[in-house]
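Practice problem: predict the structure.
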Amino acid sequence: MYKPLLFSFKVFVFISLEIIFPLCSFAQPFTNEKKIDTSAVNLVSQRQGSIDVSKDGIIGVTWIDETDYWWFMNIALSTDHGESFIKKVVDSSAIFTEVSLYYPRIHFDKSGNIWLTNYYWSYYGGSLRIYIRKSTDGGKTFSKILLGDPGPSTNYSINSDSLGNIYILWEPLGRLTCTKIINGNLNDTIKSVIPHPGLLLDSYPNGITADGGNVFVVFSGGVDPDSDHVYIYKTYFVKSSDGGLTFSSPKQIDTTVSELTYQSDPDIFFWNDRLCIKWKDKRDGKFSIYFTESLDNGGTFKEAVKINNDEDGPVRNSHISGNSSMLGLAWTSELVLQSSLQYDVYFSKKTIQSDTFSVPVRVGNPLYREYSQLEGGIAADKDGYTYIIFHDDRTAPGYYKYRLYLSKAKFDISDAEETTYVPGFYLLQNYPNPFNPNTKINYSVPQTSQVQIKVYDVLGNEIETLVNEEKPAGNYQVEFNADGITSGIYFYTLKAGDFIQTKKMLLLK
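Answer:
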């Protein structure tokens, strides 16, 4: 028999506070926020950063200093977990010239050699070229080669394998291509064109990783279903079993979405013998991050899961990285608060023992939300530190003179189970939503509590009790099956001690 629910004033007060101050009260593990370069003059804007960590724990960051008249590409290295950096200007050729430097990337190979890549753009000829640099002396000197003209796409990715080979995913002349630098020798390269699906008309090279003789690639591929030059992009995966010489036919990662669902920004990370892939898509009407993994080198992938909270706003960009005990995701969300567009950087993680990601936490200073955006992302070291870099405009508000900041957190790697971070009571939006007939609800409790989750209809009648038991601190997921009820709006409520929160879901049959 249905039981009426009397929604208390307490519930609505909590919801209104959540809308005004989303996640602001939650503690977060990222501390010691620092400027990477404290010597930059006020006219300089620092953009397009990239970060990586060597196997010995050296942090490397590269970025572009830009003004109206000159562009510098820089590198900064830290050997003390980001407490201090030593900066070096790598390229100053774009001073008072019609040349711009764009999109630098940094990568450490297995031997600790530093690899830098970047674009040159010439205003006169309209040419766009990729250069590759290698340093074998800790960044003191670099050798350089021209990779080539990438054509229309400015996306590319660099990675290496345990054998010392370097792989670059790019798109020369509109052809998705993997260039292999054999044993790290700049003069010994092989190019392999990656096949397209039959209907694919456009593509963006996004992510590449390698392990032994296997090379794995993800990219965004677009089709034009109405022949009106409006492309719908999906995330595709290809694999090479012969060291990047030939690649398999592409397959779509997530086939459960509508053909009109737009997907972009995929990346791939090889973690503890798992292929981990993230991307963003608009299946819910705004961009969110989704994640899947494969335990058989890409033969099959698990069901995609959503990582971010809808309340935090749509996702702009994201990055993935990890160490032996933890996999981390970082992203920028945008949210309109009091008629102003705000940006926040968020972080979530998982361990080998966990099938779910932790509740997202915000990174950076909440007093500076208008300009804070993730730049080139996230890296983790062998000592349990996770580093996130982002840019923010704090020196001259309104003039967009950005600076790069680094924030770090240390998680216990001696016991991976202890790295689960539970910031407080929280009830997430169900997924999928709308749904038919099954949907999943994630929630967290920060301490041992008597937990109750119930579903109600719009009249307040109780439909089902999903959870009614004592739970220790942790993150949880429960599934609701709506086979026996009709389409419509329903509510689900979490009660744990004095905490109460209610959310709305839509059943469409």
